[in-house]
Automatic annotation (TrEMBL), chains A, B:
Keywords: Decarboxylase, Lyase, Pyridoxal phosphate. PANTHER family: GROUP II PYRIDOXAL-5-PHOSPHATE DECARBOXYLASE, TYROSINE DECARBOXYLASE. The keyword Lyase applies. Belongs to the group II decarboxylase family. Its cofactor is pyridoxal 5'-phosphate. GO terms for biological process: amino acid metabolic process; carboxylic acid metabolic process. It comes from Lolium multiflorum (Italian ryegrass). One of its GO terms (cellular component) is cytoplasm. InterPro entries: Aromatic_deC, PyrdxlP-dep_de-COase, PyrdxlP-dep_Trfase, PyrdxlP-dep_Trfase_major, PyrdxlP-dep_Trfase_small. Pfam families: Pyridoxal_deC. The modification N6-(pyridoxal phosphate)lysine is found at residue 332. This is Tyrosine decarboxylase.
Length: 528, 528
């Protein structure tokens, strides 16, 4: 690192102009971007990350800390003048107090959330983009940045077997955003403005959006942000018998009722791989219902979209030719680090109509005059954009679609193996059919409620979850409470997760279950 | 890099299940996250970036390319199976075809946009965050991630001399978002929901937002996204005599007229450092006008907010104690790489009321029970979030507030020096008073229009801009068209820009001006 700069100002004078300095006190400009420092400090960072990956199994997935633990360790303000070799000290603090206070999303025992799957190439692609640090908000502001984005969204769309109509190659087009929330919001706003243009700009209060009670809260949040009334968000009830998928018949009924009440159906968010149970809504049939009311259909495939790289999963989006927009998070299960949500739209002009800039901008660009260039700032909420295309391009190029298939299939296979482990222990059951790499399971209650209620079983599984998550080396586990049933949920997808991790983690669950059941029995025995 | 994985599947069978493999063909799982590969490939990336910084002056700031240039060079789909050592080849492509096709935001001759100022520590902070790749959307999902964010937004707020009421330490609080657009959208939505709760949820069509004709288009875009009618966005006219600042009197008149028309004033976006001329709206007086109508005041200090680290600039936010929210882009001029917009709010509960999740989430967390933890997903649009706090913390810690002041002051001093250069050439004028490090200047017309119109001068400067930007080694320059005057605009702020770059760039402008004026004279002479 450059030697710490000197403080050459002791403040400014009263009228806000910079204090004049004697010649020997010339402004010491901090040397903060320099190739040699970058080489030296960059290697320190690479070593730190490599060590982290090498030792990640040693960390408990979730740290045993209480709120405020880190704030108490840090000063209440930034230093005025950095300590000598501040960068090395700061990296030591990363090792000593920050890493031990994190929930480790790259741990092979992190099963609680859909993954944030890292890869060497994905993480380094982000590092490279941060180093180059361009802002591809218009074509002119970074031509190669914009064009690489256009190329890779088409590459990704083809690799995922999306309909051609969503790709640039087929008249649609895609972009890379931060999150699914952003993608859904952009789609809702595009749909809303298109609809209001048709019916009257004042009727925003009549618009209705549709989803199921399993849809990610991003839909309702987006609709609310876009000014749709909260009581015009229809979260249609699903049921276990139908695998918690949205029923086209129920959707039809809801839309019909709204139309009869003088309201205007606007938007449907269908999900491929819901958060709680990875349920799959029937895209084709839902689109048919939506079409009758000229409703925009968005498909949220945040997690399961990555699985579409395998042709054996293509059927889950049958009928997608009819959708208006589609999004998936390449940062979840496709080895691209946070954040990288790909969104495709069939008619980019609707997106642009809602989100484009009206003002004259401060740049003109002769090279793009007369060309139909893509200015990505008109495709999303943000002006400043990172060069996300770089990491996605590197992942696709360096692992190849075959490599990504193997990656997905290996997790699916581990999930299959885990499902068999659960089925082999009669005390447990797999509650919903395994989809992709998500397994939802629970401990059966040894004493079923006579009323048919699930109360006892639910309490049992709540206790089991708590005890499993309290085991320091244990698997980090989440729950889903669906259709009245409380179940545990393991999403297999962390890049480093292998079958042995799942087998070990399952032993932890079995042991905790045995302890709980044994305690229950002894209590019952003492009562009897 | 790990040896390219083998393709062990030749597809899937018809009913969508994975093909069974013979024992010797066991699934070959790609080895995509491994400490040794990360060390080796990471060092390649560090070398590439260091070389880029070392040689950045050799690139033209803006590449001489036409739309489609890169798309034509790349295949139309991702490879199935990667070539041998694909990572090294890909990095070679970055050097050969991607870097030469970028607009170089780190070039010392990039004056066109407000900077995207890189630093060694800022870029490596992003690399580190990408390697660790956690998702701090709730406290539990990454305790140290959430707490470091809370700590650094307070550090930054104090360093920028913000009122205590906006900091966690003073009952407010901050967060790190991607962009100002996102910050304004969150603020508008919070203000909107608070107001509709008071007046009636159906009156969204009556709400009005206010800004000046100099306000960044992010305000109107955010308001439109939030469902505010386009014709209820008041862009109040400013004038040169008032330095293009928003007049409190005009704001008062606009609000009064709206109230009299039965409309409801909602939101004011005041700017400190407008995009076109770095104008500063008078915060304190505007807040007083807004208060009379219970209007939410947001301050957008995207660019100039960084300058607040210098006490001599504190006066530009006099009266900020009264604002409801404030945002600035640390990625613009404060050495933190894209993206890092800090937003503070006085009453976090209003933000949370508008943006919080209603659904039961899939995790419970015992450690945070009974504590008032911050779950940052409720403070913004997105669920997935990067660990942005890390890079900001590193920048503050390793450069110190004194270092950041020196950095800002050195650019301000260069801008002052440039202003003097312009003033020393009688053919030119500085059009608006220099603010911070932005200089707006133009070539005077040798033949002023008799009507007092600026037509000839504007045409002259349009031509000058075009010719300057056509010089391969020239400074990348933008324009502003304000109050009928077309001017050139240089924002000094790229980390590597030194006075010598500006002096050289100024020679280019002078030479192009001489050539244009000379040609004009000879045409006039031949006409006479």
């Amino acid at each position: 690192m450059a030697p710490p700069h000197h403080t050459v100002y002791d403040g400014a004078n009263q009228n806000g102009t910079v204090v004049e300095l004697a010649a020997q006190e010339k402004l010491q400009r901090p040397d903060v971007l320099n190739a040699d420092d970058f080489r030296r400090q960059g290697k320190q960072v690479i070593e730190l990350i490599a060590d982290y990956y090498g030792g990640i199994s040693d960390y408990p997935v979730h740290p045993n800390v209480t709120p405020g633990f880190l704030r108490k360790l840090l000063p209440t303000e930034a230093p005025a003048c950095p300590e000598p070799d501040a960068f090395t000290s700061a990296l030591q603090d990363v090792r000593d107090i920050i890493l031990p206070g994190l929930t480790h999303w790259q741990s092979p025992r992190h099963m609680a959330h859909f993954p944030a799957s890292s890869s060497t190439v994905g993480a380094l692609g982000e590092a490279l983009a941060a180093g180059i640090n361009v802002n591809p908000f218009t074509w002119a502001a970074s031509p190669a940045g914009t064009e690489l984005e256009m190329v890779v969204v088409d590459w990704l769309g083809k690799a995922l077997h999306l309909p051609n109509s969503l790709l640039f190659a087929g008249g649609g087009g895609g972009t890379l955003l931060a999150t699914t929330g952003e993608a859904i919001l952009c789609a809702v706003v595009a749909a809303r403005d298109q609809k209001l243009e048709q019916i009257s700009v004042g009727r925003i209060g009549d618009l209705v959006v549709y989803c199921s009670d399993q849809t990610h809260f991003a839909l309702v949040k987006s609709a609310r942000i876009a000014g749709i009334r909260r009581d015009h968000c229809r979260e249609i009830r699903t049921c276990r018998a139908n695998m918690f998928a949205l029923s086209p018949m129920d959707l039809h009924a809801a839309m019909k009722a709204d139309v009869e009440a003088g309201l205007v159906p606007l938007f449907l968010c269908a999900t491929v791989g819901t958060t709680k149970t990875a349920a799959v809504d029937p895209i084709g049939e839902l689109c048919a219902v939506a079409a009758a009311h000229d409703v925009w259909v968005h498909v949220d495939a945040a997690y399961a979209g990555s699985a579409l790289v395998c042709p054996e999963f293509r059927h889950v989006i049958d009928g997608a030719e009819a959708v208006d927009s589609f999004s998936m998070n390449a940062h979840k299960w496709l080895l691209v680090s946070n954040d990288c949500c790909a969104m495709w739209v069939k008619k980019p002009r609707t997106l642009i109509a809602a989100l484009a800039v009206e003002q004259e901008v401060i740049m003109t660009d002769r090279a793009s005059e007369g060309h139909d260039v893509v200015d990505y700032m008109d495709w999303n909420i943000n002006l400043t954009r990172r060069f996300r295309a770089l990491k996605l391009w590197l992942v696709l190029r360096c692992y190849g679609t075959d490599g990504l298939r193997d990656h997905i299939r290996s997790h699916v296979r581990i999930a299959e193996a885990f499902e068999k482990m659960v089925e082999a222990d009669a005390r447990f059951e797999v509650v919903t059919e395994r989809m992709f790499s998500l397994v939802c399971f629970r401990l059966r209650s040894p004493e079923p409620d006579q009323s048919g209620s699930e109360e006892t079983a639910n309490a049992l599984n709540r206790q089991l979850l708590e005890e499993v998550n309290a085991v320091t080396s244990g698997p980090y586990t989440s729950f889903a409470n669906v259709g009245g049933i409380y179940m545990l949920r393991w999403a297999i997808g962390s890049t480093l997760t292998e079958e042995r991790h799942v087998a070990d983690a399952w032993k932890v669950v079995q042991e905790r279950a045995s302890a709980i059941l044994c305690k229950m029995e002894s209590i019952n025995a003492s009562r009897a």
